[in-house]
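Exercise 7b. Backbone tokens:
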């Protein structure tokens, strides 16, 4: 439980926000539908305890729920005296647009004319057809290493989304590049970034690796 005067805040647990675009949304990462209900019920119970001033609320106690193993763990979390939000001398005193900061909403595309418009996406079937006929394409996987171990497109290069701003110089701006992730959200952000630094031929794989498995390579596992 965060935000109570006598306990830690969320910033005590995570002093710095993640790099923009690094954390996938629930739509990309997936969530079991019943899980929010379980956590929401726990949150409601804690709220009732605070209102009625009964029991022992989760102040300074970090509760972890493992739904797959149906186990709870509890860790102690202390208030950070140097926390920029709730510490002795706070420096963060108002909210910013964290959705924009974390890259949840993609930047508005630059206006383009019909004459100069280029496709920004490629389907799994189109990609397979182009690979079969020998087109030179650089496939870049922007998922995390653990995801890459589960399934992948043969010949793809792994550059996690959070590393793209630091490693994009490893790519040839003259090559035609296809970026992909699990479902297409993270790779769309990577494609936008590459275009912003001068890459002209960048395509996002529509539907990501899941669509590739559905329509091209059903032998690979899903997650």
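Sequence design result:
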């Amino acid at each position: 439980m965060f935000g109570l005067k006598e306990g830690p805040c969320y910033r005590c647990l995570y002093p710095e926000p993640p790099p923009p675009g690094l954390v996938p949304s629930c739509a990309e990462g997936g969530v079991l539908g019943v899980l929010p209900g379980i956590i929401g019920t726990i949150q409601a119970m804690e709220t009732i305890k605070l209102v009625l001033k009964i029991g022992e609320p989760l102040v300074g106690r970090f509760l972890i729920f493992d739904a797959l193993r149906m186990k709870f763990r509890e860790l102690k979390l202390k208030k950070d005296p140097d926390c920029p939000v709730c510490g002795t001398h706070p420096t963060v005193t108002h909210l910013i647009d964290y959705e924009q900061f974390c890259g949840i909403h993609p930047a508005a595309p630059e206006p383009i004319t019909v004459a100069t418009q280029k496709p920004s996406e490629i389907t799994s079937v189109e990609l397979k057809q182009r690979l079969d006929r020998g087109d030179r394409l650089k496939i870049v996987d922007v998922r995390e290493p653990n995801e890459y171990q589960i399934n992948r497109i043969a010949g793809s290069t792994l550059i996690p989304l959070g590393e793209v701003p630091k490693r994009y110089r490893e790519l040839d701006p003259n090559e035609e590049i296809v970026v992909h992730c699990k479902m297409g959200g993270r790779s769309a952000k990577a494609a936008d970034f590459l275009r912003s630094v001068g890459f002209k031929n960048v395509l996002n794989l529509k539907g990501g690796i899941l669509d590739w498995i559905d329509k091209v390579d059903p032998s690979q596992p899903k997650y």
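Instructor comment: Residues 10-101 form a domain with the Rossmann fold fold (CATH 3.40.50.720). The longest helix spans residues 35-52.
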